């Protein structure tokens, strides 16, 4: 996300594009809220810039929103799901549950905690635990 943000803002000749890319990189660790921060921070600079047109501001806003929406809601759940053996829907639901329980720290820790729960459930020799571990993985059949 940071590299894509840097490329987009540099292509649009936005001042401080590298700083905004670094902020987008670190904000990406906080799902959903980080994307809002990463999109909102460069907007005042783009709007106030005397050399930027309204079209440039519109392109910057829509491109950043679409990029963060696609990466945050499609690409990352699929990648996290494959790497941690969690179904993408499980990743999204875990984000909602852990953020409700612990707020922002829950958002950051949601996927690792859910992955640990799946591994622990899979290690217990009980049929119900095995079914729950397979459900978190997205495998509902034996």
Explain the overall architecture.
It contains 8 helices and no strands. The chain has helices at residues 2-11, 17-27, 33-40, 42-48, 54-84, 88-102, 104-123, 127-137. 80% of the residues lie in helices and 0% in strands. The chain is mainly α and 142 residues long. The mean pLDDT is 87.
Quick rundown:
This protein is mainly alpha-helical and 142 residues long. It has helices at 2-11, 17-27, 33-40, 42-48, 54-84, 88-102, 104-123, 127-137. Helix 5 crosses helix 6.
What labels describe this entry?
8 helices; mainly alpha; 142 residues
Which H/E pattern describes the elements? HHHHHHHH
What fraction strand?
Answer: under 5%
Oligomer: single chain
What global shape is seen? elongated
State mean pLDDT (0 to 100 scale).
Answer: 87
Low-pLDDT sequence parts = none
Helix content range = over 70%
Query: First CA to last CA: what distance?
Result: 37 Å
Major sheet attributes: none
Number of strands: 0
> What's the tally of helices?
8
| Class from helix and strand fractions | mainly alpha
Q: Taking Cα atoms only, what radius of gyration do you get, to the nearest Å?
A: 19 Å
Sequence-ordered SSE layout with sheet pairings:
Blueprint: H1 2-11, H2 17-27, H3 33-40, H4 42-48, H5 54-84, H6 88-102, H7 104-123, H8 127-137
Helix pairs in contact: 1-2, 1-5, 2-3, 3-5, 5-6, 6-7, 7-8
């Amino acid at each position: 996300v940071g590299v894509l943000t840097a490329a987009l803002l540099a292509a649009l000749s936005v001042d401080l594009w590298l700083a905004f890319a670094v902020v987008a990189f670190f904000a990406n660790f906080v799902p959903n809220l980080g994307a809002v921060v990463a999109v909102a921070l460069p907007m005042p600079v783009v709007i106030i810039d005397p050399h930027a047109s309204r079209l440039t501001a519109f392109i910057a806003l829509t491109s950043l929103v679409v990029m963060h929406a696609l990466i945050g809601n499609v690409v990352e759940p699929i990648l996290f799901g494959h790497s941690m053996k969690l179904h993408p829907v499980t990743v999204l639901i875990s984000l909602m549950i852990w953020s409700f329980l612990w707020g922002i720290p829950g958002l950051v820790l949601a996927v690792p905690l859910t992955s640990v729960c799946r591994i622990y459930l899979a290690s217990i020799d009980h049929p119900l635990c095995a079914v729950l571990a397979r459900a978190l993985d997205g495998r509902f059949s034996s």
